[in-house]
Design brief:
The complex is a heterodimer of chains A (265) and B (332).
Chain A (H helix, E strand, L loop, with lengths): L1 E5 L2 E2 L9 E4 L4 E4 L5 E2 L1 H17 L2 E8 L4 H4 L1 H5 L3 E6 L8 H15 L4 E5 L10 H9 L3 E11 L2 E8 L2 E8 L2 E5 L11 H9 L3 E2 L19 E7 L8 E2 L5 H14 L4
Parallel strand pairs in A: 1-6, 1-8, 6-7, 7-13, 8-12, 9-12
Antiparallel strand pairs in A: 2-5, 3-4, 9-10, 10-11
Chain B lengths: L6 E4 L2 E2 L2 E2 L1 H17 L3 E7 L6 H6 L4 E6 L8 H15 L3 E5 L2 H14 L3 E5 L1 E4 L6 E7 L4 E7 L4 E5 L16 E4 L12 E7 L12 E5 L9 H10 L3 E4 L1 H5 L20 E5 L5 H4 L7 E6 L6 H4 L2 E4 L2 H17 L1
Helix pairs in contact in B: 3-4, 5-9
The chains are: A alpha/beta (265), B alpha/beta (332).
Bound molecules: flavin-adenine dinucleotide and adenosine monophosphate (AMP).
The site of adenosine monophosphate has 24 residues of chain A, from helix 1, strand 6, helix 4, strand 8 and helix 5.
Chain lengths: 265, 332
């Protein structure tokens, strides 16, 4: 079983919103003072891959596209148990949209050549799009199932539970297929000390656009089909009225009284 | 090359009914079409979808295109992508609006890539740029910490819209429009996936999407038992219980009760956030609530930036006393 997992490096989405800042001049967002992480849903996809590998054996190849990727960050899937890491890391990939990103990832997957499952996160924590997985599937002509909470691979097909708003669907799909993974798959495992040591020794393979037979006009900003016109932070007029009291119980009673006064209760 | 003109709205059909988001799409679609002086088309795909065309017209469409085929009974994306590719090839709209629903999340990006374009997912605002006449597509990014305005380079300019972000028009049954039917031309073998089962996890009581009052708890509740006290408050106020993601991930509550970006997007009159920090991803699902009330032991918690009323304290002490007082007030 050859499994390819796409994982992105992002600013830490779990940092408090109060340290989120946008640089208006460059339209770039940051979590001030906090290092980047791998995209949480990408991490769930790695966990899904490890579960399949445990059941069926095989090899997990992780691909990440970005510019000046932090080796420490992108090696986390290796420390969790993935086998190989391919980085599409080059200035040319800078500021791509879903189109140029999916195009480059699909080209890299084609170059890998052998794949039974391609796993992505259901949506990246920065774009909140959920477009890359289905995009790769279309480019490669593969079937696709999104928002998986369980993946069982049997001979030549996968049985997937797809999260829906009122439960889940059970879907069977022939493989190779693209699957996007949701948090219901289960908490990603922590890297073990042994895993971290192994990861240290694995050298990532680096592919420039030419290595995946892509012209510079197809990647990064040049390959975009969407333009970002503006990025801004919505403002909230925070005016929370606090109910006080000498004890928690008294504050609670005062809250109820406040709500009654405001005709909310 | 074909000329791309007009606005098209994909009106999602489920169980032979048009979903509310279809009317919301037609509402904003009407506005954009009027601004451009162009037509608004509704696209209905499904089995027995034909009966719904007049309803789409009543909600603002100038014409409707219907693809009716028994193979389209379930929303199998393979089938729907190929049908929509054909429909869009025929009507060549400048803008295509879809809904950010279970099936929209799957269908829209597949269709976009098939058509050689991208789609801006989960838009909360759509407008026409006065100079370029292109569609300005506003959507939350970074989990809701920011909003981005995108434009598409090519046609159709595709978007999905967030539930309840756009307003539907009052239906006008007297509106008239042409109804065109388009053949699906599907073979059963075109559909590579097979739906083996559809599991519905029923929750007793009022559905969280429909409740006027939602009592939600977060990681700080600590256990399934803890939620019983939230249940008690919800019952008194005839509301529903909800949660941030950790309680669902931990199995304290069913996943279907998760509120947020990747859960339910709700807008009740009253939203209690108890031991919830108020991450941007969670707030994406509840910031449309009329009044938010927060109980949190951390006075600096982000939830207090968006709450109208709050108590700083341990919910284990605050909530029982609050429930007691509410009971007393409701009885008097
Ligand atoms: C792409 C993406 C999508 C996501 N989608 C969603 C989503 O749809 N919904 C969602 O909720 N999350 C979502 N998340 C996760 C989100 O980022 C947060 O991790 C999550 O919302 C945190 O939940 P919480 O507030 O319950 O937990 P925490 O952030 O851990 O907060 C717990 C709070 O409880 C308080 N507390 C603890 N004990 C007590 C006590 N005894 N009394 C009073 N207060 C107490 C603490 O002060 C703290 O503020 C998503 C994340 C990503 C990256
Ligand atoms: N630059 C990238 N490198 C590797 N994987 C990516 C990249 N961008 C997106 N992905 C994958 O696609 C998923 C969805 O991203 P998006 O379509 O941007 O929401 C992510 O969770 C990743 O699995």
């Amino acid at each position: 079983m050859n499994i390819v997992v796409c994982v992105k490096q992002v600013i830490d989405p779990e940092s408090p919103p109060s340290i989120f800042k946008i640089d208006a001049a460059t339209n770039k967002a940051e979590m001030r003072g906090v290092p980047p992480v791998i995209d949480p849903y990408g991490e769930f996809a790695v966990e899904a891959a490890l579960k399949v590998k445990e059941a069926k054996g095989g090899k997990i190849t992780v691909i990440s596209l970005g510019v000046k990727l932090s080796r420490e960050v992108v090696k986390k899937p290796l420390a969790m148990g993935a086998d190989e890491l391919i980085l599409l890391d080059d200035e040319a990939y800078v500021r791509g949209d879903s189109w140029s990103t999916a195009t480059a990832l699909a080209a890299a997957i084609q170059k890998i050549g052998e794949y039974d499952l391609i796993l992505c996160g259901r949506e990246a924590s920065d774009t909140n799009a959920g477009q890359t997985g289905p995009g790769i599937a279309e480019i490669l002509g593969l079937p696709c199932v999104t928002i998986a909470r369980k993946i069982d691979v049997t001979d030549g097909s996968a049985r997937i539970e797809r999260v829906t708003s009122d439960g889940y669907d059970v879907i069977e799909v022939p493989i190779p297929a693209v699957i996007t993974v949701s948090n219901e798959i289960g908490e990603p495992r922590y890297p073990t000390i042994k895993g971290i040591m192994t990861a240290k020794k694995i050298e990532p393979v680096i592919w420039k656009p030419a290595d995946i037979s892509l012209d510079a006009s197809k990647v990064g900003t040049a390959g975009q089909r969407t333009r970002l016109k503006k990025l801004f932070q919505p403002v909230y007029e925070g005016k929370c009225e606090f109910a006080e009291g000498d004890s928690a119980e008294e504050a609670a009673a005062n809250l109820a009284l406040k709500l009654r006064e405001s005709k909310i209760l | 090359m074909a000329e791309y003109k007009g606005i098209a709205v994909y009106c999602e059909v489920k169980d032979e009914k048009m979903l509310p988001i279809a009317a919301e799409g037609l509402g904003i679609g009407r506005k954009l079409a009027d601004e451009l002086g162009q037509e608004l088309a509704a696209v209905l795909v499904g089995s027995n979808a034909g009966n719904l065309a007049q309803q789409a017209i009543a909600h603002g469409a100038d014409r409707a295109y219907v693809v009716d085929d028994p193979l389209l009974k379930d929303c199998q994306t393979d089938a729907y992508v190929s049908v929509m590719e054909k429909v869009i090839g025929q009507i060549t709209p400048q803008v295509l609006i879809m809904g950010q629903t279970d099936s929209g999340r799957d269908l829209a990006p597949r269709l976009a890539f098939r058509l050689g374009v991208t789609v801006t997912m989960d838009c909360v605002d759509l407008a026409i740029d006065s100079e370029s006449k292109r569609l300005l597509q506003t959507k939350p990014v970074y989990g809701g910490n920011a909003q981005a305005v995108f434009t598409s380079e090519s046609n159709p300019q595709m978007v999905t819209i967030r539930t309840k972000a756009m307003t539907a028009l009052e239906p006008d049954a007297s509106r008239k429009g042409d109804i065109t039917s388009i053949a699906a031309d599907l073979q059963a073998s075109d559909i590579r996936t097979k739906i083996l089962d559809k599991v519905v996890e029923e929750v007793a009581g009022i559905k969280i999407e429909d409740a006027e009052v939602v009592v939600a708890g977060g990681r700080g509740i600590g256990s399934a038992e803890g939620f019983q006290q939230l249940e008690e408050l919800a019952k008194m106020l005839k509301g529903a219980v909800g949660a941030s993601r950790p309680p669902c991930d931990n199995g304290w509550l069913p996943d279907t009760l998760q509120v947020g970006l990747t859960g339910k997007i709700i807008a009740p009159e009253l939203y209690f956030a108890i031991a919830i920090s108020g991450s941007s991803q969670h707030m994406s699902g509840c910031s449309g609530s009329k009044t938010i009330i927060a109980i949190n032991k951390d006075a600096e918690a982000n939830i207090f930036r968006q709450a109208r009323f709050g108590v700083v304290g341990d919910w284990k002490k605050v909530l029982p006393a609050f429930n007691e007082k509410v009971k007393e007030l409701l009885a008097s």
